[in-house]
Amino acid sequence: MKLEIISKIHKDSHAHESVILIHGACMGAWVWEDNFLPYFHEKGFNVYAMSFRNHGQSDSLEPIRWLSVKSYVEDLAYVISEINGPIHLIGHSMGGFVMQHYLQKGSVNIKSATLLCSVPSHGLWRLIGNLIFHYPLYFLQSILTFSWLPVLKKQTTLQSVMFRLDIPKTKLKHYATLLKEESFLVFLQMVLLYLPKTFIPKVPIMIVGGEKDFLIPKEDTIKMANTYKVEPFIVSGASHCLMLEEGWDAVAAKIYSFVK
Questions:
Q1: How far is CA 233 from each of CA 35, 119, 177, 244, rounded to the nearest angstrom?
Q2: What is the pTM (predicted TM-score) of this model?
Q3: Where are the domains of the chain?
Q4: What backbone phi and psi angles, to 5 degrees, belong to 60?
């Protein structure tokens, strides 16, 4: 199986540490291509943005609807195994959830881990309540069709749940066209069925959340940070996709100060 990896690597690659960027649900490596990938390359890292199977340009060998988190963990483990030297992981949303499962097993190559608006270790219960309260019809449609695209494909809803209100309409329209189907089983696993076991990470961990994040409310980010016994960094005014919106560079700089 071929996995999409968008990379920027220095000529003397062995002299540089690496960053792996891990996308969230319905997305792919493209979410990192314009901002985080060139930023961390300019800061001296070899940078790899991966797409899980059935995402981006990666192979799709089976229907996505019932893929499991274990499959995505296998994809991440494979990409890590192909890279020599110290590695820093940065995972967004579902990607952060996958990272937490991977880190339970440990890896000698991992130097740090950053959870960016990550699905929390205690599950998505708060999000379920928010969806039922704010978008009951879309929520019901998603449950009946085993698909979250009804929530995300309508631009007004997409903006409310994933972006700041001041995102340019042209960008919002473009991102909406790039969002693809996600595994419904993975969603159920992130709610309750396959939560990471509580553990103290063997590597330094940074937890970043958005003050205005609808999908991962800051209360969940703070609770997860307490679980991992670290101080969370809550980005003022930021929404869920803070690597794509205004202020991304300040977030990247904060992460760089942690990983350098």
A1: 20, 15, 31, 18
A2: 0.95
A3: 5-259
A4: -120, 95
> What digits encode the pLDDT tens for the residues 72-117?
999 999 999 999 999 999 999 999 999 999 998 877 799 999 999 9
The CA distances from residue 166 to 14, 16, 95, 159, 191, in Å, are 41, 37, 25, 9, 30
The CATH architecture to which 5-259 belongs is 3-Layer(aba) Sandwich (3.40)
Provide the pairing of β-strand 46-50 with 5-8. Answer: antiparallel
What's the pLDDT score for residue 141? 80
Distance of CA 221 to the CA centre of its chain: 13
3-state SS record for 93-139:
CHHHHHHHHHHHHCCCCEEEEEEECCCCCCCCHHHHHHHHHHCHHHH
In this predicted structure, the answer to whether residue 153 has a pLDDT above a threshold of 70 is: no
Look at strands 87-92 and 46-50 and give their pairing. unpaired
Task: For residues 171 and 151, give the distance between their C-alpha atoms in angstroms, rounded to a whole number.
Answer: 18
Q: Is 129 exposed, middle or buried (0-12, 13-18, 19+ CB in 10 A)?
A: exposed
Angle, helix 155-162 to helix 169-178, in steps of 10 degrees? 100
